[in-house]
């Protein structure tokens, strides 16, 4: 499998409104992408198409080399981890950290109907170690900070060894230090041999980590630009993208955007 996501001329309409328009997007194995766009530009709608929760009005979708329309999407979803604010909201406050991680094996919320084995907890413990959140073992969700919760949810997303991991605004609500810690964890994660392809959705240019060699800029439901992050995230491109004069400076291999004087 070399093609992870392949969207061809995908459009999605709802209530007489075109929300995604003519999207062509190809993600290869070994690439990690950042997806950037303003509020309402269609980022979450795009992820809904990739996970088969929304069906395109036009166009063709293949994910992990599986053509939609000819496959069982529920089976495919077992190979996709998805961390989003809607998942976060569904986790019970009383849930224990390692149970949250283990539940990722079943794509369930809670473990009321599941019977995890010792090996599942061993794997959860290993992943929590990878994400530097082993110290949360035994803690309830309600006692975890926002940054710790995000790490647990990413660990949960990794539990089923997905080929594709979608991180939708994982840094929202984090302070400067917690955000940098989480970003460092994501950067490290992509260095692992068995790392899934990561699609990292964000509003913030400076979160385009060195590992995100490719970037997709979405604007009003259309692809504004896509390709190598270094070529896409230029002052000229972003000035047109935001409709506001900005400069971009690369620092520690990350782009930082500033308003022009
Ligand atoms: N099911 C739906 N029916 C009607 N409109 C929808 C539906 N889902 C999304 N939209 C609209 O599509 C547009 C794109 O929404 P989407 O949530 O994909 O944007 P986004 O880029 O993820 O936004 P944000 O950054 O604010 O989370 C918005 O105008 C939204 O109101």
Automatic annotation (TrEMBL):
<keyword id="KW-0813">Transport</keyword>
<dbReference type="GO" id="GO:0005524">
    <property type="term" value="F:ATP binding"/>
</dbReference>
<dbReference type="InterPro" id="IPR015856">
    <property type="entry name" value="ABC_transpr_CbiO/EcfA_su"/>
</dbReference>
<dbReference type="InterPro" id="IPR003439">
    <property type="entry name" value="ABC_transporter-like_ATP-bd"/>
</dbReference>
<protein>
    <submittedName>
        <fullName>Iron complex transport system ATP-binding protein</fullName>
    </submittedName>
</protein>
<dbReference type="InterPro" id="IPR027417">
    <property type="entry name" value="P-loop_NTPase"/>
</dbReference>
<keyword id="KW-0547">Nucleotide-binding</keyword>
<dbReference type="Pfam" id="PF00005">
    <property type="entry name" value="ABC_tran"/>
</dbReference>
<keyword id="KW-0067">ATP-binding</keyword>
<dbReference type="GO" id="GO:0016887">
    <property type="term" value="F:ATP hydrolysis activity"/>
</dbReference>
<feature type="domain" description="ABC transporter">
    <location>
        <begin position="5"/>
        <end position="245"/>
    </location>
</feature>
<dbReference type="InterPro" id="IPR050153">
    <property type="entry name" value="Metal_Ion_Import_ABC"/>
</dbReference>
<dbReference type="InterPro" id="IPR003593">
    <property type="entry name" value="AAA+_ATPase"/>
</dbReference>
<dbReference type="InterPro" id="IPR017871">
    <property type="entry name" value="ABC_transporter-like_CS"/>
</dbReference>
<comment type="similarity">
    <text>Belongs to the ABC transporter superfamily.</text>
</comment>
<dbReference type="GO" id="GO:0005886">
    <property type="term" value="C:plasma membrane"/>
</dbReference>
<dbReference type="GO" id="GO:0022857">
    <property type="term" value="F:transmembrane transporter activity"/>
</dbReference>
């Amino acid at each position: 499998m070399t093609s992870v996501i392949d969207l061809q001329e995908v459009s999605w309409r709802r209530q007489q409104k075109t929300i995604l328009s003519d999207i062509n997007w190809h993600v290869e194995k070994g690439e990690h992408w950042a997806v950037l766009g303003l509020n309402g530009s269609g980022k979450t709608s795009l992820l809904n198409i990739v996970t088969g929760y929304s069906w395109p009005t036009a166009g063709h979708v293949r994910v992990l080399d599986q053509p939609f329309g000819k496959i069982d999407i529920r089976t495919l979803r077992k190979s996709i981890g998805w961390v989003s604010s809607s998942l976060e909201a569904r986790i019970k406050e009383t849930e224990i950290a390692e149970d949250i991680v283990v539940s990722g094996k079943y794509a369930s919320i809670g473990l009321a109907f599941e019977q995890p084995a010792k090996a599942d907890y061993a794997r959860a413990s290993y992943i929590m170690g990878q994400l530097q959140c082993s110290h949360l073992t035994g803690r309830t969700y309600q006692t975890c900070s926002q940054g710790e919760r995000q790490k647990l949810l990413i660990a949960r997303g990794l539990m089923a060894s997905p080929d594709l991991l979608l991180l939708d605004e994982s840094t929202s609500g984090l302070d400067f230090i917690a955000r940098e810690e989480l970003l460092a964890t994501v950067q490290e994660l992509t260095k692992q041999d068995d790392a899934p392809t990561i699609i990292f959705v964000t509003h913030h240019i400076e979160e385009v980590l060195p590992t995100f060699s490719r970037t997709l800029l979405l604007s009003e439901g259309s692809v504004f630009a896509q390709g190598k992050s270094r070529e896409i995230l230029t002052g000229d491109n972003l000035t047109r993208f935001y409709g506001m004069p900005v400069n971009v400076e690369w620092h520690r291999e990350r782009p930082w955007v500033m308003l022009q004087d």
